[in-house]
Amino acid sequence: MTRYVFVTGGVVSSLGKGIACASLGAILEARGLKIALLKLDPYINLDPGTMSPFQHGEVFVTQDGAETDLDLGHYERFVRTTMSKSNNFTTGQIYANVISKERRGDYLGATVQVIPHITDEIKHNIKKGVGNADIALVEIGGTVGDIESLPFLEAIRQMRFELGSDNVMFIHLTLLPYLKPSEELKTKPTQHSVKELRSIGIQPDILICRSEGILPENERKKIALFTNVSERLVISLPDASTIYEVPLQLHKQGLDQMVIDQFHLTADTANLAEWHNVVDAIKNPTDTITVAMVGKYHGIADSYKSLILALTHAGIQTKTKINIEFVDAERLEQEDPHTILAHAQAILVPGGFGNRGIEGKIIAARYARERKIPYLGICLGMQVAVIEFARNVLGWKNAHSSEFDQHTEHPVIGLISEWITDKGSIEKRDKQSDLGGTMRLGAYECLVEPATLAHKLYGKSLITERHRHRYEVNNTLISHLQTKGLVVSGYSKDRSLIEMVELADHPWFIGCQAHPEFTSTPRDGHPLFTGFALAARKQKSI
């Protein structure tokens, strides 16, 4: 039988609950338990893929093609599990399901209400998402007290009532702000958010208190007294030098044992040696490099969260401190690129949508190609590298993607109207198709050509990477580019789509249509990013 741990939040940072869930999952996994992780988002959107990176951060793509909240990326990075469509759902999806059932007549003409119909649908989706896990960690998005998350909170209250405290636990994560002028650690926000929870019938079993420093004992006692939570179950979670230190912090305070005790389970002794190694590699690097990331969503750090972490993982694998310098692509269109990029040992151009900043990304690809600087182009970053090569090596001055110039004479990147999915069905799309509805989403197999840099990095001929895009390299024009030194190093399994390119006369230049950052983890890294970091270290020594 699956036991449930529901994690709610008061006033916390965006990484609070997600990292806490992932870290607790990592410790429980290290104790031999099978873990499931879910995220419930209080958004009306049918999926997070419709939300702007400026507003919500990046979209994390699962193996089965779901566009989900970025916290699912943390779950996969901390726990060796694979997320799916059933691990993340929104208020919009819940209401859409209920309305669909009402239209079909499933409720036999009954008045459809938040209770029981919406809450029943939420409970159904939770149970569906956890499978046969020993423990399910379920993060409730939003902040306690907000109207949006009330149906979720009511649903988990009902689950506690139905399944009992031996099978359902509530963890509440709050922020303890420190007021420097008065040198006070304020517990009132925690007291009030717990009061808000208790007013709707939820009494937290455990409190995790986020703060700048370690929670003093007198403040711990005060919080316990006013929240009706045992003092030993008030966990201190101070700022860490790296998020990968959080599992060690929580285990040191016995959080995993508290969960196991309440559920009356037996488990192995936690072996956290891998996490100690990860933290040691971050704290004791042997070299430092600078990577210029040329993008256009630098308004919030979460816009490129998986990429930033993938570079961090590459640093862990190579014991390298990687400084990321964020470069607005539009700056390169207005200023001398050499003054902006000269001090970087490597250049990374990430994915994106829309015309803004495209010429700047093309300039970055040219700079890396001509100056023999390690280059990693991801999705759109690969496409701009192909466009740049066509323009400046092949001489097609107006070469472009039909996404940005529908009248270009040389559309080296185009909207492929028909292709076969990994399941063998035919997918069709055109310029009128919904932006998200016809993207190539999720995991696809790729054939890696022998005697290429890509094959050397991956060490095998068949790989799987996740995609999120609509436009592809134009197969009808690629042969012209190949005659000038562009190497196609990866094809789709049926060889109809180009997955990876590189340059024959460049020490390290790779473009990939997929998003390898989604499968990078701190303990295992990813071959492309590890190779990229090593190439940058070599560039620094030149």
Description:
By secondary structure, the chain is an alpha/beta fold. About 35% of the residues lie in helices and about 25% in strands. The protein is built from 19 helices and 25 strands. It has a 9-stranded mixed β-sheet, sandwiched between helices. The protein has a 7-stranded parallel β-sheet with strand order 5-2-6-1-7-10-11, sandwiched between helices. Helix 12 (about 305-320) links the parallel strand 12 and strand 13 (about 320-330).
Précis, in short:
The chain is α/β, with parallel strands linked by helices. 37% of the residues lie in helices and 23% in strands.
Strand sequence of the main sheet, in spatial order? 13-12-14-15-25-24-23-20-21
Helix content: 25-40%
| Most strands sheet | 9 strands, mixed
Assembly level: single chain
Shape: globular
The radius of gyration is 25 Å
Tally of strands: 25
Low-confidence stretches: 418-422, 433-437
DSSP helix count? 19
Termini separation (Å)? 59 Å
Strand-residue proportion: 15-25%
